[in-house]
């Protein structure tokens, strides 16, 4: 189908014959070239004519046959070592063309398809932009940029007519490129404006001192940043340096962003912004949290240093308040707000729980110490400490440790001198001027003086040459030169120095911020707080005789004073036989005397019967109660009252005090004794005051209950004497430990002991009636019931006194004695071995907590806690069974005394006693058997 011409193929293979080497010495005109397809030699003229006229269309010009033009011969040889000469050629890339060509091409390729009528494009030069950036970067408005109040940010200023939107176009750049280059500058200016707005809010008169200090610190940092911004701005701005300039402020923009985030006004949010905390402690917590966040996230050290400077500056007022609160400084040249509010101390949350506990206890302990001993060195001496401070380096930690040890040494030396003088005062009374002298004036710790209180950085005014009378001394100020009291203005460089020398990493000995706070800021306050609490504990156990108050409470309210409880039994209960006691029911206190003398009082008996009939109740005798407890509003009333009952109970207290401790009531002659004589024996003073601090009260109980009438209104119920309460009023400093809550717990124990005393009295009455009453044959079931009940009550009383109360109370007293001995023999070290003992020794309120826990343990051992209601009710019913048995025996005795014994009544009596015994056995087994 297709044919191949071999001749044509051969010709095509040898179109170009092998060339001869070029001889540079020959002339170009004499060069002979073999024409393709022809082997004859041609002349130069023939070659030219053939090249220009005779060449066919299919033939390509042969470079070897082309003759150079006539003229000067040029060497057209190119090699690697010959430089290229001639004018540079323009690049073919569009992006490398001139700016105008590129802009024209861009608009040609991307034309504006939509006409923005409301958009105004403003073409500016780099010089115009630089002129506006000089004010915009500092947070101000300029010719190109203005402030938007609604969004709280800097925007491109609109046209004069105020309509539409203005877009800046810088040189030959596009709108998007111009916007991206200008946006970082606008963000920096916006952040500065927002921070300055926060500063204005913090400077309001109603804000706290910490807020105003924060405003000052923020203003110092903003001034430092603005100075760096002004320094980095070039004198001239070109299109080539614009992109480099926009990235040169990235570090400052990050710092301003961190400050704006701290001020709760970051770029990502719009107004209204969240306000900073207005009180001192929450504001410091916010700053501390921000610093902890930036340190934990490895922020640039300048950013962390700025936040640290804000925290240090803002906490100065708090440091001064803390120093005054715990007694490090007595008075400052300017007023500071106390950290104590009510019974709490306002401390930041970033303080550890232990630190807050120690500082809060020390603040309350100092207040109590000032009331207990106003002349104590810790209440009268200014320890020349300007308030605790922060530390960020290892050298700061060593310096704080040295100052703390020196302070502890000075305080202990002053206290040891006070204790030594107090021991010497027991034999010799010191003169008044020795007591008022400063105990540390010879130990290197200066006493408070006017000069130390008003020490400031201001120069002292010159002394006036004219001498005025004391009443006219204030006019000497007019003799001074004008402005002599004003300090010279000093440029504040504290912010720049702190930031440049600020902490890059935390010390190795305190690698976290909470540890750093305890090691620097709180090192001295914690040590001083322990000294205050230890000194107050020494005052309590020494001059205030705290343990004597505990002895009074243990003896009278907790049943450890046998004389008091014996006389109380005689005043409230009757141990004689039932037949002699039941004859005088509710006829006043003198009824007992009339009964023993055999004098009958039919009139009062009739009155009691008529009153009981009107009230719809039977005339009953309260089993175990003393005869004639009530003479109020006629016979037969309950609860008892009246002056005779109050006098009898008052005599019980006074007789017990005089018989046991030899104390007598205070009188006017005691007030005439010198104060030092009273302080020689604090225990005797406490015992003298016990007679009027201790007294019986009638509790205000509810008369109605869910079951009906309250049981304490029934004289036969076990709760009949719950209205009677023995209370103790401790003196002013002691009531910080023996609080009302603890006394209420003691009232519950006293009411329980009063029930036991009544039940024990009934068992004695049963014994006397069973074995001493003549003419009455007691059935065996009564003897068995009496034996079981009396055995149970005896064991219960022994358990309550020895274990439930005695064991826990003695353990509490032993702990106090041990702490007191360790405190007296403690060396200069303030680091105790046992943390629990140190907790009680360094905090007097821990003694209150331990006493409260001891009372809780006593209540639990006596089955009086609310969660023990079930088993407590079983114990109460066991004790009430004793009263029921006593009432049955009493009714039987009255029946035998009035008439002969009836067999039916005797069987009924035996049946009731059997029921009581069975119920008692069931309740007893429920108590003692394991669940």
Automatic annotation (TrEMBL):
The biological process GO terms on file are: cytoplasmic microtubule organization; meiotic cell cycle; microtubule nucleation; mitotic cell cycle; spindle assembly
Q: Which spans does this entry mark as compositional bias, Basic and acidic residues?
A: 41-56, 670-682
Superkingdom per UniProt: Eukaryota
Q: Name one GO cellular component term.
A: spindle pole
Location in or out of the cell: Cytoplasm, Cytoskeleton, Microtubule organizing center
> What sequence ranges are listed for the domain Gamma tubulin complex component C-terminal?
548-928
Q: Which UniProt keywords apply?
A: Cytoplasm, Cytoskeleton, Microtubule
MF (Gene Ontology): gamma-tubulin binding; microtubule minus-end binding
**Feature: compositional bias, Low complexity:** 437-458
Q: Where is this region: Disordered?
A: 27-61, 423-465, 663-682
* Listed Gene3D superfamilies: Gamma-tubulin complex, C-terminal domain
Similarity comment: Belongs to the TUBGCP family.
Q: Could you tell me what this protein is called?
A: Spindle pole body component
């Amino acid at each position: 189908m297709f044919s191949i011409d071999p001749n044509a193929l051969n010709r095509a293979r040898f179109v170009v014959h092998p060339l001869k080497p070029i001889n540079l010495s020959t002339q170009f005109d004499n060069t002979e070239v073999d024409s393709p397809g022809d082997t004859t030699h041609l002349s130069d003229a023939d070659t030219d004519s053939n090249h220009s006229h005779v060449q066919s269309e299919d033939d390509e010009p042969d470079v070897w046959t082309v003759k150079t033009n006539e003229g000067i011969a040029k060497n057209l040889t190119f090699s690697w070592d010959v430089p290229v000469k001639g004018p540079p050629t323009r690049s073919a890339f569009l992006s490398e063309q001139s700016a105008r060509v590129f802009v024209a091409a861009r608009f040609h390729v991307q034309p504006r398809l939509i006409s923005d009528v409301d958009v105004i494009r403003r073409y500016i030069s780099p010089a115009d932009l630089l002129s506006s950036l000089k004010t915009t970067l500092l947070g101000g408005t300029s010719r190109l940029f203005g402030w938007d109040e609604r969004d709280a940010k800097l925007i491109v200023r609109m046209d004069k007519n105020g309509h539409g939107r203005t877009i800046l176009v810088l040189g030959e750049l596009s709108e998007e490129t111009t916007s991206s280059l200008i946006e970082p500058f606008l963000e920096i200016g916006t952040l500065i404006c927002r921070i300055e707005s926060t500063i204005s809010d913090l400077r309001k008169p109603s804000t706290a001192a910490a807020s105003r200090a924060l405003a000052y610190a923020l203003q110092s940092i903003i001034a430092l940043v603005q100075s760096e911004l002004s320094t980095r701005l070039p004198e001239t701005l070109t299109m080539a340096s614009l992109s480099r300039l926009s990235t040169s402020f990235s570090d400052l923009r990050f710092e301003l962003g961190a400050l704006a985030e701290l001020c709760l006004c970051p770029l990502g949010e719009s107004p209204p912004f969240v306000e900073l905390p207005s009180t001192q402690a929450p504001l410091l917590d916010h700053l501390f949290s921000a610093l902890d966040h930036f340190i934990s996230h490895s922020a640039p050290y300048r950013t962390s240093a700025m936040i640290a400077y804000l925290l240090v500056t803002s906490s100065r007022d708090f440091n001064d308040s803390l120093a005054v609160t715990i007694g490090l400084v007595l008075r400052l040249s300017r007023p500071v707000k106390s950290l104590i509010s009510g019974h709490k101390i306002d401390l930041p949350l970033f303080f550890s729980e232990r630190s807050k506990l120690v500082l809060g206890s020390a603040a309350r302990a100092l207040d109590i110490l000032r009331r207990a001993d106003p002349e104590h060195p810790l209440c009268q001496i200014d320890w020349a400490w300007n308030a605790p401070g922060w530390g960020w380096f290892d050298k700061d930690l060593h310096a704080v440790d040295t100052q703390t040890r020196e302070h502890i040494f000075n305080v202990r030396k002053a206290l040891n001198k006070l204790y030594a003088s107090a021991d010497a005062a027991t034999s010799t009374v010191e003169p008044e001027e020795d007591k008022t002298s400063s105990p540390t004036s010879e130990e290197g710790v200066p006493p408070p003086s006017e000069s130390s209180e008003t020490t400031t950085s201001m120069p002292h005014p010159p002394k006036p040459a004219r001498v005025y009378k004391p009443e006219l001394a204030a006019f000497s100020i007019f003799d001074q030169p004008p402005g002599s009291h004003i300090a010279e203005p000093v440029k504040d460089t504290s912010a720049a120095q702190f930031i440049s020398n600020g902490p890059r990493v935390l010390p190795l000995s305190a690698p976290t911020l909470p540890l750093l706070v305890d090691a620097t800021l709180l090192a001295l306050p914690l040590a001083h707080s322990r000294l205050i609490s230890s000194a107050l504990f020494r005052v309590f156990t020494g001059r205030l005789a705290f343990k004597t108050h505990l002895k009074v409470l243990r003896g009278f309210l907790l049943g450890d004073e046998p004389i008091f409880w014996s006389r109380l039994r005689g005043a409230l209960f009757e141990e004689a036989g039932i037949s002699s006691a039941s004859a005088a029911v509710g006829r006043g206190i003198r009824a007992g005397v009339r009964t023993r003398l055999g004098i009958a009082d039919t009139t009062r008996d009739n009155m009691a019967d008529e009153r009981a009939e009107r009230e719809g109740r039977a005339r009953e005798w309260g089993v175990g109660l003393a005869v004639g407890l009530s003479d109020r509003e006629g016979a037969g009333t309950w609860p008892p009252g009246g002056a005779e009952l109050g006098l009898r109970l008052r005599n019980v207290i006074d007789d017990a005090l005089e018989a046991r401790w030899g104390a007598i009531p205070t009188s006017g002659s005691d007030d005439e004794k010198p104060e030092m004589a009273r302080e020689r024996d604090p225990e005797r003073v406490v015992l003298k005051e016990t007679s009027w601090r201790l007294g019986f009260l009638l509790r205000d109980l509810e008369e109605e209950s869910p079951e009906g009438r309250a049981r304490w209104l029934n004289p036969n119920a076990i709760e009949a004497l719950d209205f009677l309460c023995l209370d103790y009023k401790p003196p002013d400093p002691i009531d910080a430990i023996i609080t009302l809550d603890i006394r209420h717990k003691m009232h519950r124990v006293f009411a329980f002991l009063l029930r036991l005393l009544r039940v024990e009295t009934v068992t004695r009455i049963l014994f006397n009636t069973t074995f001493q009453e003549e003419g009455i044959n007691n059935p065996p079931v009564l003897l068995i019931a009496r034996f079981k009940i009396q055995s149970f009550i005896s064991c219960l009383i022994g358990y309550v006194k020895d274990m439930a109360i005695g064991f826990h109370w003695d353990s509490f007293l032993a702990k106090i004695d041990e702490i007191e001995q360790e405190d007296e023999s403690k060396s200069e070290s303030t680091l105790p071995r046992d943390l629990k003992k140190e907790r009680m020794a360094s905090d007097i309120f821990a003694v209150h907590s331990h006493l409260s826990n001891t009372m809780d343990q006593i209540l639990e051992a006596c089955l009086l806690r609310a969660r023990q209601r079930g088993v407590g009710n079983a114990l109460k019913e066991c004790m009430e069974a004793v009263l029921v048995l006593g009432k049955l025996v009493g009714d039987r005795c009255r029946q035998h005394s009035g008439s002969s014994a009836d067999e039916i009544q005797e069987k009924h009596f035996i049946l009731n006693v059997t029921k009581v015994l069975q119920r008692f056995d069931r309740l007893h087994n429920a108590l003692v058997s394991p669940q």
